[in-house]
Amino acid sequence: MSKEKKWDWTDLCDVAFKTLKNKLVSAPILSYPNPNRPFILKCDALDTSVGYVLGQLNDDKEYDIATEVSHFREPAKICNRERMLSSAHWYRGI
User: Fold this and answer.
1) Which pairing describes strands 61-71 and 39-45: parallel, antiparallel, or unpaired?
2) What is the pLDDT of residue 87?
3) How far apart are CA 55 and CA 66, in angstroms?
4) Which of 14, 19, 75, 88 could covalently link to 47 via disulfide, CB atoms 3.0 to 4.6 Å apart?
5) What is the CATH number of the domain that holds 88?
6) pTM of the complete model beyond 0.70
């Protein structure tokens, strides 16, 4: 893409965009939590960010309920284990 080239948004593009938008905001992409099922918390940590995915199993399939990523202004100066623990603690505080 460039400023000189005209964007050609067709009806097919519109249908594809609306389909994708609908699928990104509906189950199984995101679902409501079921308090009667156990939760799954996956955390990841890098020098520059931490993140998590909160999910649940339903009929042997994992569904995501919430996701979050937080970026640091400066690289963290702690070991990976401490970063992972801080991401779990950070999630708990929300």
Assistant:
1) unpaired
2) 56
3) 7
4) 75
5) 3.10.20.370
6) no
